[in-house]
Amino acid sequence: MGFYPFRGPVASLTLFKAYYGWALNDPQHLCCILDAFVPSCQLIFGALLAVAHPLPRPGLEAHREAISLPFPELVSRLVGYIGRKLSAYAGGVKDVRTVDGWVQGKAPYGDAEERLRLAFQVVRTLIDHDPPRIVQAWLTGVNP
Q1: How far apart are the two ends of the chain, measured CA to CA in Å?
Q2: Closest listed residue to residue 71, CA positions, set 87, 95, 57, 50
Q3: How does DSSP assign 88-141, residue by residue?
Q4: Among residues 91, 87, 139, which one has the least CA distance to residue 111?
């Protein structure tokens, strides 16, 4: 019978042990079983060492930039991606001159900074996969 892993190596090992009833006290068996699920397992001095490979995390870099960029730079980059009008709309203001002021270093008011940081994170994540015109169309509800 085949084995169907549900959620990663640890859950798979637990299900494997429960299904096949193997005694995992023997380090050789443990290493062989884990090697089927995590190819980078090694047995060193009687202890199991599994080298973790980072999983892809789309949007992680966008998140980091959204929380760490200074506000004027964030607004400047957002304007570069989606334009002044959409940036103003995302910031909750009606006039693009307010956006120009933010780029020049004026302090935002209300919840504009939180709104623009979230908008930047979304836009930056989408920009990794699509050109700016497609992202603009997506934000305005046009089906590209």
Answers
A1: 46
A2: 87
A3: HHHHT-S-HHHHHHHHHTPPP-TTHHHHHHHHHHHHHHHHTTS-HHHHHHHHTT
A4: 91
Instruction: Establish how many alpha carbons lie within 13 A of residue 127's alpha carbon, considering only the half-sphere containing its beta carbon.
Output: 16
Closest to 97 measured CA to CA, from 64, 119, 114, 75? 75
Average pLDDT across each block of 10 residues of the chain; the chain has 144 residues. List them in order: 44 41 47 46 49 70 94 97 96 96 95 96 93 92 71
**Whole-angstrom Cα distance, residue 38 to residue 134?**
39
Secondary structure (3-state) at 144: coil
pLDDT tens digits for range 32-47: 444 444 444 454 544 5
- The pTM of the full predicted model, rounded to 2 decimals, is 0.61
